[in-house]
Amino acid sequence: MGSASAGDALRNINDWSATARSAPVVPQRKATDEFGSLTFNEEVQRARLPKDVFRALRRAIAHGEALEPSVADILASALKDWAVEHGATHYTHWFQPLTGIT
Questions:
Q1: Could you give the CA distance from residue 28 to residue 37 in angstroms, rounded to a whole number?
Q2: Tens digits of per-residue pLDDT, 11-40?
Q3: Sequence-ordered strand ranges (E) for 1-102
Q4: How far apart are CA 16 and CA 10, in angstroms?
Q5: For 48-86, what is each residue's pLDDT tens digit?
Q6: What is the count of structural domains for the chain?
Q7: DSSP tag of 20
Q8: What 3 state SS string does 30-51 have?
Q9: Structural domain of 45
Q10: Residue 100 domain-assigned?
Q11: Reduced to 3 states, what is the DSSP secondary structure of residue 7?
Q12: What pTM value is reported for the model?
């Protein structure tokens, strides 16, 4: 590259100031629009689970009833399918100690 080309390049770089550029327009979204949007919530459960499985799950949540193994298997499969459809590639158990200290 000749000195004239290098000089032109440097002038163009100097002329291209931060104020001359505009930031991309990003649509503003409220945090409440995003928070909890990717959860296997009651609405998703109702849509994806057979009625008897959904009812058994709601009873377990509301009253602490145990789930039958067959119901738990159907629930786990539906939850896994939903998660994979939303981009999940891995799964882990996360245990938070309930010591009452925190």
A1: 16
A2: 777 776 655 667 778 888 888 888 888 899
A3: none
A4: 10
A5: 999 999 999 999 999 999 999 999 999 999 999 999 999
A6: 1
A7: T
A8: CHHHHCCCCCCCHHHHHHHCCH
A9: 30-89
A10: no
A11: helix
A12: 0.60
